[in-house]
Amino acid sequence: MSVLPEFREVMASAWSHDLTELPGLDYLSSPTGTIKEAQDLAAVTFGADATWFLVNGTTAGIQAAVLATCGPGDALILARNCHLAAFSAMALSGCHPIYVMPVQDDGLGIAHGITPDALRRAFNTALSEGRHVGAVLVVCPTYFGVTSDIAELASICHEFGAPLLVDEAHGAHFAFHASFPVPALAQGADVAIQSTHKVLSSLGQSSMLHVRGERVSHERVSRALQALQSSSPSYLLLASLDSARAHAQLPDTFREPLEAAAAARKLLRQLPGSGLLDDHIQTGADGVHGVDPLRLTLLADSLGMSGFALDDLLQSDFGVCAEMCTDKTVVLALGPGSRVTHVRQLAAALEAIQGRSKSLNQRSEPPPLAAKLPLPEMRLTPRQAFFARTERVPADEAAGRICAELLCPYPPGVPAVVPGEVLSSEVISMLQQTAAGGGKVAGGVDGSLKTFAVVFEPP
Ligand SMILES: Cc1ncc(COP(=O)(O)O)c(C=O)c1O
Prior knowledge:
The chain contains 15 helices and 19 strands.
């Protein structure tokens, strides 16, 4: 792991630095001293007017951004492939979701960004329903490093008088090199929430929320975060955020990782059987504005096996650990610690696997695409469903009932049903087929999908 040397020393004596709100150490919930100084430095660095340090990840940042902008009954227009945190944020705020389906790559079964036209349609739906739109929430970049046309989306939001909130969990590094996509704030987004712990070098769970411009009240963000965060924040996490900012600013932090990413693309393109997402998608196509060079998405199909099988092999036989995989892809995340030697190891592993793959023939039937099913009917808002009395019923009795849990199949990472929506037999069988095909269904309590939590309806 590549980190600031001074922070390495702090962590070598972590116990003595695991402090609390002692004199001189400031208060996270109402900072006026050292924490404010560090947050102000971060704001300047990330191009924000104000930055908040988060000790419960981007999860708390998304929840705070929604609470700061959407009151009970307001509409939140959101991409359907938003993170789980967006759904808990709606339960907290009591807002009314209007979903926008992301563009779906049918061949790969993955979701990209939303289009400006789809966003415009969602605003028109809100207008026709007489709803005030509190905010729009999108995820950019996606897990696969694909970015959306944030400038265009922001301009539509502003035309309709709503702020654009961007879940930039995977893009905290964008401000630090011209080779990266332009950060969301620089493109006109009002809020960007970044998992500093993902690509940058802060400790797990530490993130930042940035606000730019006047559309989002700083006071409401602070109040929301006071409600959501611990009153005993870890000073190790806070120090790691300041350190990650300083580390990312060093002139050479991304030089070798970018060289490694370029070398990886070159080496992999020379391997006859290996495919890369970059070569498969077209920048400028719907929902695809650019690709983060530090995300390498391998297309497992070209090696004749599923992404799950390729991920297993890479990890068990070659010590290559992927960020995530789907039926057809394996996503590798490069960061400040990535070196050219690492990507040579990856290329050698893929070459060896290629030799074996013909005999392995592990390719399975692709799971059905969740995003191809129509959006389920919403009978209750996420908040009403959260507080409703629920029961658990066998799968064959669940169709037609109001779902009480969020069920999100990977691929493609687009929730098939969220609390308050009606479970259909098509959704149930698609989820079961996804799991049977080696995919994952996140969010449910019963991983076997033999039972589902539904809202109780009196006989
Ligand atoms: C797109 C996206 N948003 C938000 C989150 C939540 O971030 P955190 O783990 O920092 O709370 C994640 C986590 O993986 C994510 O992938």
